[in-house]
């Protein structure tokens, strides 16, 4: 590689870093100007001390955990069965899991409202529990491409057929094989999908707003329309949560590689 090619590569990398870091730096710097003339964390203190922030953030965290649990229960057995017994169906399953990337969330939520309104055969929107369940299902659909890709990648790294045959020879049933053999071997992949799901749920607006749920995304939009500095502090917090999830994915992946190398 020539010297000029190296210089061009470093220049492109530096430009990319500045492209992302400079706007975020400006965002963070403005969020510190709540007190005139000095930098302070007043905006962050007001946001964190806001009872509505605490309630909406807690609600979104709970919904994220429910979404992760539902996603694991759906995706892990499906990906396992497709890889073990139905490899011919893999292109079709992959196509289905990619549909949430091309179907807007607003189409999904209006479909839910149309099918499950109070005058339908299953009036789920008529109760808080039913609406929360609809929201969890919607979040699961939105996170499906990321969860399935992560789990499928994890299953590629292990010999599913050999592990299944070994477990069956020891008398394990299908639930035991999934819970005690397959799942522990794809935990890093499941955690990667879980962190991506968490980041998606925390920042999601459309489903929560149209289903009228007290989630973090609609709260972020409401406070952005009424206050000057707190929205920027909230944006920094949201970025920090997303980046923390990305960092955890990297740590889990690196730890998994080290564990396999140690074996």
Automatic annotation (TrEMBL):
Residues 57-253 form the ABC transmembrane type-1 domain. Gene3D superfamilies: MetI-like. It comes from the Bacteria. Keywords: Cell inner membrane, Cell membrane, Membrane, Transmembrane, Transmembrane helix, Transport. The lineage of its organism: Bacteria, Pseudomonadati, Pseudomonadota, Alphaproteobacteria, Rhodobacterales. CDD domains: TM_PBP2 (cd06261). This is ABC transporter permease. It is found in: Cell inner membrane; Cell membrane. Belongs to the binding-protein-dependent transport system permease family. It is a multi-pass membrane protein. It holds the Pfam family BPD_transp_1. InterPro entries: MetI-like, MetI-like_sf. The chain crosses the membrane at residues 7-28, 57-80, 92-113, 133-151, 189-211, 232-253.
């Amino acid at each position: 590689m020539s010297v000029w090619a190296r210089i061009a590569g470093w220049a492109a990398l530096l430009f990319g870093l500045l492209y992302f870091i400079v706007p975020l730096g400006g965002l963070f710097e403005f969020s510190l100007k709540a007190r005139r003339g000095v930098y302070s964390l007043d905006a962050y203190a007001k946001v964190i001390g806001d009872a509505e922030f605490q309630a909406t953030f807690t609600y979104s965290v709970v919904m994220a955990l429910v979404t992760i649990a539902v996603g694991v229960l759906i995706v892990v057995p499906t990906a396992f069965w497709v890889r073990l017994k139905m490899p011919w169906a893999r292109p079709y399953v992959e196509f289905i899991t990619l549909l949430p990337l091309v179907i807007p969330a607003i189409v999904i939520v209006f479909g839910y409202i149309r099918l499950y309104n109070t005058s339908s055969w299953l009036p789920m929107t008529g109760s808080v529990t039913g609406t929360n369940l609809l929201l969890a299902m919607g979040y699961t659909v939105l996170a499906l491409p990321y969860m399935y890709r992560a789990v499928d990648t994890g299953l590629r790294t292990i010999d599913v057929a050999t592990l299944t045959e070994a477990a069956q020879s020891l008398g394990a049933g299908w639930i035991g094989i999934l819970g005690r053999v397959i799942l522990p071997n794809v935990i890093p992949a499941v955690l990667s999908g879980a962190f991506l799901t968490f980041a998606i749920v925390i920042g999601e607006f459309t489903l929560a707003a149209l289903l009228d749920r007290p989630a973090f995304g609609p709260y972020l939009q409401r406070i952005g329309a009424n206050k000057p500095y707190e929205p920027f502090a909230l944006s920094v917090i949201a970025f920090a949560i997303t980046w923390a999830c990305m960092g955890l994915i990297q740590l889990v992946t690196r730890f998994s590689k080290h564990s396999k190398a140690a074996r």
